[in-house]
Amino acid sequence: MFENVEVLPRALEDYRGIAPDEQLEGIRKLADSFQGARVLHVNATAFGGGVAEMLTTIVPLMQDVGIEAEWRVIEGAPEFYAVTKKFHNALQGMDVPISDEEFETYLRYNRRNAEMFDEEYDFVIIHDPQPAAIHKLLLDDGRGASGCWIWRCHIDITHPQPRAWGFMCPFVESHDAAVFTMQQYVKPDLNVREVALIAPAIDPMSPKNADMDHATVANVLRENGVDPTRPLLAQISRFDPWKDPLGVVDTFRLVRQQTPGLGLQLVMVGTMATDDPEGHEWYERTRAHADGDPDIYLITSEVDNSVQVNAFQRAASVVLQMSKREGFGLVVAEALWKGTPVVAGNVGGIPMQLRDGLDGYLVSTPQEAADKVAHLLQHPDARAEMGRNAREHIRSDFLLTRKVLDYLRLFERLSN
Ligand code: UDP
Description:
Layout: H1 21-31, E1 38-43, H2 50-64, E2 68-73, H3 78-91, H4 100-116, E3 123-127, H5 134-140, E4 148-152, H6 162-173, E5 177-180, E6 194-197, H7 214-223, E7 232-236, H8 245-258, E8 265-271, H9 277-290, E9 296-301, H10 306-315, E10 318-321, H11 330-337, E11 342-345, H12 350-353, E12 360-363, H13 366-378, H14 380-397, H15 400-415
Parallel strand pairs: 1-2, 1-3, 3-4, 4-5, 5-6, 7-8, 7-10, 8-9, 10-11, 11-12
Helix pairs in contact: 1-15, 2-15, 3-4, 4-5, 7-10, 8-13
The structure holds uridine-5'-diphosphate (UDP).
Uridine-5'-diphosphate (UDP) binds next to β8, α10 and α11.
């Protein structure tokens, strides 16, 4: 079998008082029917990215309620990841050519992993396109595949490149169920027995989202040269054109004009992979656009910066997320969970999390964003109330306990 990922134990009971009681009870009740059930999550990487982050919590929580959950990563190599990265972009609609040889490379690695597949499970959850062919290859080989197989799609495949989708579709359709983030991401002609919608969620106990006292927040700000006594706006995002970093700078300048004397600061925090030339290019563009403004701080990191993210999401009066396109936008849920109102682009998964006028505002231009931010800065009571609404909204709908519950509900539907 391919490689097992060890996870640290977690106790569902530790989420009591944080996640809604009815979710905890719901999980226990449904888990009764699946005591000792073998559940396998399969993806391509144990570190980095939202999928790995979520599995780090979901797998041990399932184990804690009596399910024999496992997480395994498929065997790959750089030539395979190069192809799957292209697939990822092509399935999200980018016009990248994929050669027959590249399709063959994809199949060769999936076949190798299918050959290694020598265990029996009740439920197998295959995450994203990288391992998507394993199930069909097992069937085609005549080896069979026991249990229910679920394909979990974390990307937006509404307008895929036809050639890439034509190749991938039979593999996807060989599963018993497919799971998408939201209805608009479901391909209408997808032919699987069960389609489920399960939105992403955040872990309230992780270093990125756990409570943090004022002194620690202020220290993180000072360490980064930011003044904790002056108000600030923040956007936490990779430097990426779809996150509109230049629009963030424009918004800040417009707000500052409308709120003279406030001493407003702007902080943009982003992780930057050393092998991501686009990230470096957009960081440089943003720096040039900021033009030496002493109130604008661009803070990058090449390692995990969860504590920084946590502190800035808390310290900000308003968090911006000026995305022009966004699959879900976990940063929105993260900031709302901290009771910070968010002003964000009205795109992709953002409106699911952010109720316009209740948790923050949905906007389409820097001018619109600036007007809303200025309003919030001038009305601290309204801001505080939005923050309280926002936290409760995330508590009820976007904590990982809800996600565990959604998976158990799907297992139940598939068992009937
Ligand atoms: N993130 C981080 N450090 C940063 C910037 C982002 O840890 O400097 C995290 C962020 O907290 C979130 C994830 O990266 O959990 C980004 O997810 P999102 O869905 O917002 O956007 P994506 O980068 O997947 O397009």
